[in-house]
Structures are given as C-alpha cells and as structure tokens.
C-alpha cells in the first residue's frame, strides 16, 4: 500500500537517499528542509516526479511543521544540527533545533494521527563504550552538547510513545558514510580522508587515532530504515541500533583509504590535538535488528570504501559541490 511520507531533513545526506528510495517506489514523498546543512543537489533529480514535494522550512517553526505534516502517514525525522563543534560553541541553538524541533514534530504528528514516526537518534547518545558491542540497554552518557540534545530528543520520543501512545520507533544509527556526505563537519572522517588523499595530502587525525567507530554504508542505512517501516509492529516505543557490529579505529581507517589509493609509503597521517567532546569507542550490537527485522548489513568497511571512492573518482563530488555552491547563491534557498 502506498503511503504519504514526510522526511524532515530530506535534503541532507541520509534523508535524500531515503527520499529517492520512496519516490521511486511510488510513495508520495514530502521533504521538509531549511537548507542550513541540506543540499539542493541531493534532491534535484526528484523534481521531475509528480509524487515528490519540497517544503522549505525550519523544524523550529511550528507552522512550517504543521504545513508539512498535513495528510502524512509516515514521518522519518532526520532534521538535526549534527556538528559537535558547533554545539560546543552554541549549545542553545543546537538544543533549539534538535530537541525543541523534535518536540514540534512529535506534537504535530500526534495532532495529525500519523501512523508512525521513525526518529533518527544517534550512537553519540551512548558516549564512549562501557562495554562492546553496545546494545540498546547501554547507559546514555552524552559527551557533548550535541549528544545531549539528541539524547533529550530520543527520550522525548519515548515519552510521547509511552504517554500519548504515538507510534514511534527510535533508531540509533552508528556512523553512516557514503555518496552525498559532505567532507566538512565533525563526523565526516571518511570523506575528509578521501578528499585529502585524492589531493595527495595526509589525512589529519585528532588525538592518537585509537578511537574506534562502527561505520555503516548509506545503502545499508536505507535498507534498515525501510525494514523498520515495513515491520515496525513489535518495535513501537522501542529503540533499535543500526550498524555493522564491526569496530574500526580512526588510524586503521586512514591506512585503508591510503592503501585503496595506492599511496602506501607516500602518504602518512598527521596527528593533531584531540577535540573536546569526542567519544573514544563505539561499536553496535545489532542483535535486536537481526532478530526483529532480519537485518544483515551488506557492506563491510572495505566494500563500502571502494564504492564511495568510486563515486569520488567519477567526479561526482565535484559535480555535487559545484551545484551546491550555485544553489546556495540562488534565491531558492535564501
């Protein structure tokens, strides 16, 4: 059965992949985005589809959210301010977007009696791992204002499900990467490393490089979200992890990327001071996703990196960046 789907943050990295997936499956798709970090180039291929609609708006604006929510069956709530560094400089702004913006989404979804809200939380809410792999019962110890804002919104979603019986599933994705991911920002180690190695520059590692992450390719993330949409009955009011269950150090990641470009012995990472608020260790336990959704990631880090680098080498990044610059100068996003 075809659905009317709202994707907040749908011009962003993951959101645009979801929008493309559901437009091509003939669902009616609305994207709500203020382009503070989203990229018009991510969704420009969807404007030719009659079942696609873009609403320019900020999730902090209740009227914009209410307009977008009208007639919607399913909500994917991905809109967020994701930069840890910015959250340290301006925590109030990040809380307004991530926490109060989520409150607007939940309130409007409740008023409009939507069928399901899928909230994109973050592995950052856990803080550094107290044990590995990290299941959904791992304590929440957010290490930065960004992580704290996501944890607050995460628990708001649970509260709305528990108190108002709003059908919500909370998805905690671990570090996602792939085409359309910007090489700017705190969480973008992979595109940053790729970009620098392509330019024959050394990857820059903050700290000693021993910090670890669980890297999930964007195609696996889209598949995971789709599995939730199609089999959410047992997950309402619950939290579910999505990742690979594989732990990769930042140093190892840099070495892999250098090797994939054939630059061993020619380029070596450089190390700089660690950043405040950085989590030291993350690795997902995806047992619940396997049990409830039969989710199995198709991409390990080697396969995902090869596909992402192929996208870069094909010149797609330059095309994406050039169009983004053009779009940012246009009246469309002002």
Write up what this structure looks like.
The chain has 334 residues and is α/β, with parallel strands linked by helices. The chain is 40% helix and 15% strand. The protein contains eleven helices and 13 strands. It has helices at residues 13-24, 62-69, 84-89, 91-111, 145-164, 189-198, 218-230, 250-260, 287-293, 301-313, 316-329; strands spanning 4-8, 28-33, 52-56, 74-77, 116-120, 168-173, 176-177, 204-206, 212-213, 216-217, 239-242, 248-249, 270-272. Helix 1 (13-24) packs across helix 7 (218-230), helix 4 runs parallel beside helix 5 (145-164) and helix 6 (189-198) runs parallel beside helix 8 (250-260). The longest helix has 21 residues, at 91-111. It starts with a strand and ends in a 5-residue tail after the last helix. Residues 325-334 have low confidence and may be disordered.
Q: What features would you highlight for this structure?
A:
about 325 residues, 11 helices, globular
Provide a compact summary of the structure.
This protein is α/β, with parallel strands linked by helices. The chain has eleven helices and 13 strands. β5 (about 115-120), α5 and β6 (about 170-175) form a beta-alpha-beta unit.
């Amino acid at each position: 059965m075809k659905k009317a789907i709202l994707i907040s943050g749908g011009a962003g990295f993951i959101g645009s992949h979801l929008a493309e997936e559901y437009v091509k499956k003939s669902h009616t798709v609305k994207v709500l985005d203020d382009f503070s970090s989203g990229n018009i180039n991510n969704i420009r291929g969807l404007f030719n589809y009659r079942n696609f609609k873009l609403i320019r708006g900020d999730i902090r604006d209740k009227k914009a959210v209410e307009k977008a929510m009208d007639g919607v069956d399913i909500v994917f709530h991905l809109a967020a301010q994701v930069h840890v560094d910015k959250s340290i400089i301006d925590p109030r702004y990040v809380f307004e977007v991530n926490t109060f913006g989520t409150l607007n989404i939940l309130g409007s979804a409740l008023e409009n009696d939507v069928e399901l809200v899928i909230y994109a939380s973050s592995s950052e809410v856990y803080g550094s791992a107290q044990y590995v792999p990290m299941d959904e019962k791992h304590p929440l110890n957010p290490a930065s204002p960004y992580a704290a804002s996501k944890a607050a919104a995460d628990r708001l979603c649970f509260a709305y499900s528990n108190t108002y019986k709003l059908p919500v599933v909370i998805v905690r994705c671990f570090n996602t990467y792939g085409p359309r991911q910007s090489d700017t920002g705190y969480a973008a180690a992979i595109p940053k490393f790729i970009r620098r190695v392509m330019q024959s520059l050394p990857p820059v590692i903050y700290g000693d490089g021993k910090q670890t992450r669980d890297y999930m390719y964007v195609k696996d993330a889209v598949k995971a979200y789709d599995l939730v949409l199609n089999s959410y009955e047992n997950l309402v009011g619950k939290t579910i992890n999505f990742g690979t269950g594989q732990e990769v150090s930042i140093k190892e990641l840099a070495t892999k990327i250098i090797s994939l470009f054939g630059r061993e012995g020619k380029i070596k990472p450089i190390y700089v001071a660690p950043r405040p608020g950085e989590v030291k260790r993350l690795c997902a336990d995806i047992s619940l996703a396997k049990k409830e959704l039969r989710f199995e990631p198709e991409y390990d880090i080697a396969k995902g990196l090869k596909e992402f680098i192929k996208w870069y080498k094909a010149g797609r990044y330059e095309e994406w960046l050039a169009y983004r610059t053009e779009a940012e100068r246009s009246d469309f996003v002002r």
